[in-house]
Amino acid sequence: MTLILCLFTIAISLLLSSTPVSAHFFPNITSIPPLLNATNGPWDSFRNFSGFHAGDKSDGLSKLKHYLQHFGYITNSTSNYTDDYFDDALKAAIETYQKNFNLNVTGELDPQTVQQIVRSRCGVPDIVNGSTTMNSGKKTSSSNSTHFHTVSHYSFFPGTPRWPNSKRNLTYAFLPENQLSNDVKTVFSRAFNRWSMVTALTFTQTESFNDADIQIAFFVGDHWDGEPFDGLLGTLAHAFSPTNGRLHLDGDESWVVSGDITTSSSTSAVDLESVTVHEIGHILGLGHSSVENAIMYPTISSRTRKVELANDDILGIQELYGANPAYNGSSTTPEAQNEGGTDYGAAQKLGSPLDLKFAVGIGLLLLFL
Ligand SMILES: [Zn+2]
Ligand SMILES: [Zn+2]
């Protein structure tokens, strides 16, 4: 009886504590309020460490270690990543990071390295379970070179998971509680087209979120998959390897749906299609690439549009699924752009979610009815 009462209490508290999912969409660059223009990303404090090297100590260095641990550069066994010492493990992590991002391998927090670290990026780690096929996982042609030259290429998740042969037409759906407008949904459709043009996969939107192969959702903060979002900039989105299908975007970003984002005066404006094309790559089985112009490169600055699949991306996806017979090797741009967009005025705020907490709460509550 006590156990039932306890479960009932948990069910009620989960229902009551369910946080709303909201996302900010801006139909064009002039509709972003000036207030958001001065916002810095969550990693901006790392700029204070510019010039630091092994042996240094500074308050907040543990936060940088956490960052590197999160993206796979420090394993829990190699370093105490909760202290503020610039130890050998941190130096090794920075060297690996520098290789992956085509920087001079100095092991120090030189300005170029810091500049790269603070860029907004995808939340998927560069190194998964200690293995990577970004630069640091490849053999160098000249071992005494301090600058790593990228020859290739794309990468896959460990074990090369992919959608099975029986699944060549994948369905996708949007979390109903996000109440996305047709303009926003069109951005996703364009992003999927970029991949289906080059490979033997097709994508079809379906209304049933739970039955869809690919489930797209905007969440704010912690959303119960162990990968909480971090507010404006920082981590922009993440997605899971096949055949999980979950594609999550940070509802706190200033998502720009159309228009020339490069001319935006807002330092926080993020191009929705650019990030979506990247995350679909993960959904299909691609990991991060060290090739800077590849869609699967891990970072993307705000006010940047990057939607064209690079040769690196195309070779990677075709290795997994084969080529689209209709693909002739030319541009992948389905440029039915909706440049300029319509002026809706202020940001569109979205309604309440049915997030995991809510679902668990409902489930538990049903036990008692
Ligand atoms: Zn990514
Ligand atoms: Zn998530």
UniProtKB/TrEMBL annotation:
Q: Which residues form a coiled coil?
A: none
Gene3D superfamilies xref list: Collagenase (Catalytic Domain)
Which residues are noted in the entry as Ca(2+) 3-binding? 230-231, 250, 253
The biological processes this protein is annotated with in GO are: proteolysis
Q: Does the keyword Cell membrane apply?
A: no
What are the GO MF terms of this UniProt record? metalloendopeptidase activity; zinc ion binding
* Named cofactor requirement(s): Ca(2+); Zn(2+)
Positions bound to Zn(2+) 1: 223, 225, 238, 248
A GO cellular component annotation in the UniProt record? extracellular matrix
Q: Which SMART domains match?
A: ZnMc
The free-text note explaining how the cofactor binds reads:
Can bind about 5 Ca(2+) ions per subunit. Binds 2 Zn(2+) ions per subunit.
Similarity annotation: Belongs to the peptidase M10A family. Matrix metalloproteinases (MMPs) subfamily.
Q: Which residues form the active site?
A: 279
Task: Name the chain's protein.
Answer: Peptidase metallopeptidase domain-containing protein
Q: Which of this chain's residues are annotated to bind Zn(2+) 2?
A: 122, 278, 282, 288, 296
